[in-house]
Model the fold of this input.
Amino acid sequence: QKEVEQDPGPLSVPEGAIVSLNCTYSNSAFQYFMWYRQYSRKGPELLMYTYSSGNKEDGRFTAQVDKSSKYISLFIRDSQPSDSATYLCAMSANAGGTSYGKLTFGQGTILTVHP
Amino acid sequence: DTEVTQTPKHLVMGMTNKKSLKCEQHMGHRAMYWYKQKAKKPPELMFVYSYEKLSINESVPSRFSPECPNSSLLNLHLHALQPEDSALYLCASSYSGLSPTDTQYFGPGTRLTVL
Done:
């Protein structure tokens, strides 16, 4: 079983739709959660990060963490064609020392928003 | 400025060649990372440098040799690579690599093809 599971999609939605992207994880040591967006042939770009259960909002994006269920989500409101990209969840453990450098990524979900 | 730059953008090399990938950041970060990303897969951590010292080596074959000449520069020396090493090589940096709240910023990557 992978430490982080993410549905690879692909996911195709019409412009203006609400998009829900999800990851589940099995390692209770994961305490820090991030969402990255990666356009084709580019490096990942940090979208949001959160360290506690609950919701965090930034413009059209909302990150949600439920540590009791080991489940995280990213919601995109009013999706735009420019949101078409691969979305990667990533997590790190509160393991101390140099282990902080290690991010564990989900497989990535390919999202297409069509006009 | 949250920019990490990588050169070259593309590299084609034979299995007997020696080449180097370069990464630079001017954000004052003290941790730098090398990742390998195959198509439709998440990035895989290869190496982490924190304060110019190698802190994580994810059992990478010796044909990949990292070097951190100073806190702004990171190199990856390549020698006797195999065709399966063809991938997107991503560099990232973060504040220190010693805190769970460190945010990693990625460069655009070098697309490597080994013939």
Summary: The first strand of chain A starts at residue 4 and ends at 6. Chain A has a mean pLDDT of 91. Chain A touches chain B at residues 8, 31-32, 34, 36, 41-46, 49, 51, 88, 92-94, 97-103, 105-108, 110 (CB under 8 Å).
